[in-house]
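Fold sample X.
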Amino acid sequence: MQVRRLQSHADFERYIDFSEEVYRQNPYWIPPDRHHLISVLSGESQDIAQCRVQPFWVERDGRIVATLTAVVDDVYNRHWNERTGHLLFFEAIQGFETDVAALFGAASDWLRAHGCEAARASFLYGWQLPWTIDAYDAVPTAFHTYNPPYYHSYAKNAGFGTEHGMVQYEITFTRELAERYRDMIARANAGGIRLRSWDFERLNEECTLFADLLNDTFGAHWGSPRFSAPQMQGFAAAMKDLGTPPDFFGFADVQRDAVGFVFALPDINQAFHRMRGKSPEDGTAEFTRALKEIDHGVLLIIGVKQDQRGRGINLALAARVYLAMIERGYKTASYTVVLDDNWASRRTAEKLGGYVARNFIIYRKELSLAASR
């Protein structure tokens, strides 16, 4: 058994190829974006310039049996006044408990050597959403990833415990819900709130406003990092290029000041899943057709300034997006992802007709305590 730190692009290619071995017989898994993941693993992506990144794998008899990447986000830690590291992009074959424990140990040691006092596994906004604990027989929705159930035992055997739970709501659209959504919008309009879609002709300016509102409204939200305007510009441009219409991105204005936002998108995982691992570039016509056949939407994030909460702005923003989805023939939508104890957001989802359909978990290990044992 040997744990290796990875440095070369050839290593990063093998890191990604390994996931195909893990999920070869799994009908629900969706391959990662190879180009994007290599830029992240190598640290070359401009979106993560504030981060230190170190990928690892553990091999036995020359065969890779698990992969894991350690990340230190200095901007995140300054914002939260923490020394937290993150362990992401874990994949493993079943039945290698000793090897996986050594891998987690080596990655945790690297985090400790880079000043971290705790390690969080499986979650960092903008990088990876957490592991599911129940959706093992379903294709994950956009930006979620699949994981086998045995990953949880691997994490706990490596000394990690539960830090937080999260949920995803699902909504089945009906005529009654559509009427409810129209009423939510009408009440907001009567209260002096103007709802508008993004202007794609001014995408950079809209993304700057989005980043400012996101950092303002989520500044005290557990686990949220700081996002830059260039990050949001790249993200929004990519979603626009995948066919996301402008009315899936929205702002709420009060007296011409933006006080809230919503960011939603088609469930692009439906299209990627239909490609069966084939690159969109290798099947452009097929992928374009799959994008047009999407019938599920994803409300990814919604926020309202603190002093404007309680006015129904959140409901109106979400309702407007869901009506846009209904008009395009979507049958269902998600409201994701929500902390278990974020009751304000959970009540919003319930008022919109949502019910909890999938559950997720985030793990943590205190490295300072581990070092003293």
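Fold sample Y, listed below.
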Amino acid sequence: MTRAGGAAADRNEARRTAADDGESDASLDRTDRRILAFLQANGRATNLELAEAARLSPAQCLRRHRRLEERGFITRYETRLAPARLGFTVLAFIHVSMEKGHIRDLPRFKDLIGDMAEVQECYSVTGDFDYVIKVVALDLKSLSGFLMDRLMRLPGVTSVRSSVCLDEIKCTGALPV
């Protein structure tokens, strides 16, 4: 393993440990929160820009930033793409019901859902359905194909109900830090 790979693995282990330890935001001070809030809105910020926003020296800021990563408060960096610009014109929320008593199918279902590129998010929920899935599709025909040919054929799935999004009112991953 390369040195960089080893460091990344160490950071991932630290993140898992912090999450497993149940570490909460109670250990964050005002400066940590400033750093997190700025990074949520400005993911491509330089350390100098981040330091200025956090009111720290660049060296102090870098130490705190790395510590927040190591402690699992920052889990990853990503770029949000414009779905419509890439041809994805349909966004749907799909409610999935699983067969009762088929607990052995759940791990396989979760693995298969995790491998489906159209699935943006999937949550196990309480209520009338077992899962809520957020899906993108090129068009309604593609969504229909996904539902009929793939999702409904997964082990343990008994029914699905989809709701197609008409208009996006708010979409953010930013947390209120």
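Sample Y note: The first helix runs from residue 3 to 20.
Also: The radius of gyration is 20 Å.
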